[in-house]
Design goal:
223 residues; alpha+beta; 2 domains
Length: 223
């Protein structure tokens, strides 16, 4: 933290509250393991928002809070249904992959950042599922930008899927031709979502994302 920032008991309580929210939301999101969550707390919040002579105190607090939040999450999981919305969303991902469409759950940062990393993501999936790069023809994704903050308050949330089409030979085409192909991808995404029982909010407008409301109850880590 900078020397100009005020550091007092109110600041300490605000940091503790921030750490509580971050830890719970990251456990619910299931994107990072416990060691990674603790590392993120240290590097992003503790070292940035507190003086160095209090880092150890807040690291101990975060470690204890991580244990407490893990117990809370285990209690929540005991009341979950046998098949959760996240289980069904994972099945949508598989169904789309079999059609040559990439579904990227909780993609990084924003639409622009995700768009820049789509090629790398296709390579990652192709290493897991050989041949995917050769057949991939479209994509859909929803970003992580606000999800951690939302999950600190509730597991019920709405996500909005962007989508698009990959040209087989990377050739240029008119906006109208691209829109036609992108709409075809979006229709398949909606079909797979409906097949798993999700209600889809979309009006067949290429300028609009596909809205889906769900209860984020995730048993497995995001890949």
């Amino acid at each position: 933290m900078s020397k100009e920032e005020v550091w007092d008991d109110k600041s300490r309580e605000e940091l503790r509250d921030t750490l509580r929210r971050v830890i719970l939301s990251e456990l619910r999101l299931a994107r990072r393991d416990k060691e990674e969550i603790l590392e993120a707390c240290c590097e992003t919040y503790i070292q940035d928002l507190s003086p160095e002579d209090e880092w150890d105190t807040f690291i101990h607090f975060a470690t204890d809070e991580l244990k407490r939040a893990a117990i809370l999450l285990a209690t929540e999981k005991a009341a979950w249904p046998a098949v959760t919305d996240c289980d069904r969303l994972d099945r949508v991902e598989v169904a789309l992959r079999e059609r040559g469409i990439l579904l990227w759950q909780v993609s990084p940062c924003c639409d622009t950042c995700t768009g820049a990393e789509l090629g790398d993501r296709v390579n990652v999936i192709s290493r897991r599922y050989p041949g995917f790069r050769d057949c991939v023809r479209g994509y859909a994704f929803f970003i992580d930008q606000n999800m951690p903050d939302m999950l600190a308050d509730s597991t019920r949330l709405s996500v909005y899927l962007a989508y698009g089409w990959f040209s087989a030979d990377d050739s240029q085409m008119s906006p109208d031709a691209y829109a036609k192909n992108a709409l075809g991808i979006a229709r398949e995404v909606c079909e797979c979502l409906r097949n798993e029982g999700f209600e889809v909010d979309w009006d067949v407008d290429v300028a609009r994302k596909i809205g889906v409301s769900l209860n984020w109850q995730r048993r497995t880590m995001l890949e």
